[in-house]
Design goal:
With about 60 residues, the chain is an alpha+beta fold. It comes from Hoeflea alexandrii.
């Protein structure tokens, strides 16, 4: 988990391009993390951005 939003965004975009799958950037307990979009099932996280390797990143809110 990261405390720096900018660094987490860079990692999320890089991961999306490497895996060629949508990645979500989420916030949980004051920290940022990334997961493949199809693995997000937990209601305790707040999804902030989605990074799609084909269309780019966009804010979920």
């Amino acid at each position: 988990m990261q405390h720096d939003l900018f660094l987490a965004q860079k990692h999320a975009w890089n991961l999306a391009r490497t895996l060629m799958t949508p990645i979500v950037l989420f916030k949980s307990d004051g920290e940022y993390g990334v997961l493949p979009a199809d693995e997000v099932e937990d209601a305790e996280i707040v999804v902030l951005f989605e990074y799609d390797p084909y269309t780019g990143g966009h804010s979920v809110h």
